[in-house]
């Protein structure tokens, strides 16, 4: 069991780092360390939620809903995301960073819930959006 937990924490951190590396490469506000930490923390909170659920499920009169922890993660990531969004002249910056952190947290929740394939595939999709769609915007939409 401990081995799987270590694997989950490592995988979440690695997937966050992959996304963070792309952001770091583009010299964005949040990069490798931020995305890795968000993924690690989110996965750990998710694992703890399931562990608490298992611990309290067998005790009479105590109810524990792990979805509340997931909701708290979403609110916390929203708070972090809100901190990276700012207005610069007539432009709003940081929206993609905030959305990337939000998606990274969701990926880490998937890892914590043992949805490994879905988490890896979602990481691929995030990279497709950040790299592929970014190039598409440059070439097609910003002419």
Secondary-structure topology with pairs:
Elements: H1 2-25, H2 32-57, H3 67-84, E1 86-88, E2 91-93, H4 95-112, H5 116-141
Antiparallel strand pairs: 1-2
What oligomeric state is this? single chain
Strand order within the widest beta sheet: 1-2
The number of distinct helices, counting runs of at least 4 residues, comes to 5
Strand content: under 5%
> Would you report the number of β strands?
2
Instruction: Indicate the structural class.
Output: mainly alpha
List keywords for this structure.
two-stranded antiparallel ribbon; single chain; 143 residues; 2 strands; mainly alpha; elongated; 78% helix; 5 helices
Q: How does this structure look, described?
A:
Helices cover 78% and strands 4% of the residues. By secondary structure, the chain is mainly α. It has one domain. A hairpin with a 2-residue loop joins strand 1 and strand 2 (91-93). Helix 1 (2-25) runs parallel beside helix 5 and helix 2 (32-57) runs parallel beside helix 4 (95-112). The longest helix is centred in the first third of the chain and has 26 residues, at 32-57. The model has no long low-confidence stretch (mean pLDDT 88).
């Amino acid at each position: 069991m401990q081995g799987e937990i270590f694997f989950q924490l490592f995988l979440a951190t690695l997937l966050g780092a992959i996304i963070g590396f792309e952001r770091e490469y583009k010299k964005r506000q949040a990069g490798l360390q931020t995305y890795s930490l968000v993924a690690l923390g989110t996965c750990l909170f998710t694992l703890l939620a399931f562990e608490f659920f298992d611990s309290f499920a067998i005790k009479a009169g105590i109810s524990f809903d792990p979805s509340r922890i997931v909701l708290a993660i979403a609110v916390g990531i929203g708070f972090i995301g809100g901190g990276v969004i700012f207005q610069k002249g007539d432009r709003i910056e940081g929206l993609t960073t905030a959305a990337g952190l939000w998606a990274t947290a969701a990926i880490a929740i998937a890892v914590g819930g043992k949805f490994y394939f879905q988490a890896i595939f979602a990481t691929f999709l995030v990279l497709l959006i950040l790299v592929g769609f970014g190039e598409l915007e440059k070439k097609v939409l910003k002419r």
